[in-house]
Amino acid sequence: MMKKTALLLVLLFFISSTTVVALSWAYPFVVWNGNVYKVLDESVIEDEIGKKIGKVKTKPNDMSGRYYGDASNAYPRGTKYFEIKGISNEEAIAVEVDDNQWKKAVFVHEAPFHWMNIVTKYIIPVIGVVIVAILVAIIVLLYRGRKEANS
Description:
Largest sheet: 6 strands, antiparallel
Keywords: Membrane, Signal, Transmembrane, Transmembrane helix
Strand content: 25-35%
Number of domains: 2
CATH class of the largest domain: Mainly Beta
Number of helices: 2
Order of helices and strands: HEEEEEEH
Organism: Lederbergia graminis
Protein name: DUF3592 domain-containing protein
CATH topology of the largest domain: Metal Binding Protein, Guanine Nucleotide Exchange Factor, Chain A
């Protein structure tokens, strides 16, 4: 009896743990500057395209749906964002979907908080500055050491 119960429990464990879940998104979106924009099936003509303002840098997690930074659920990393002349960036931006083809993306809501936003926006730049400062200090110390050794 005990062996049958153990076998049944193991079998149930394997059956229940093989379930695969993937998200289905309600609409294609891009995230820029802490805001989520819904990408419409509305083209933007080249004359309305302003300067480049950003690009897709991350993808959402397919299982949890969580994302951070400039992300998109529909476009690959490197997809560029542009301002649309005459429209505030808080209202809409243009997403380059192909060479010289842009779609309008309208503001939907602010992006949810994610701790990686703080890391990528504040901590990584500070670490970069510290590394540069250390390298400069090492170069200055080596230069002074050589100068003193030659005198």
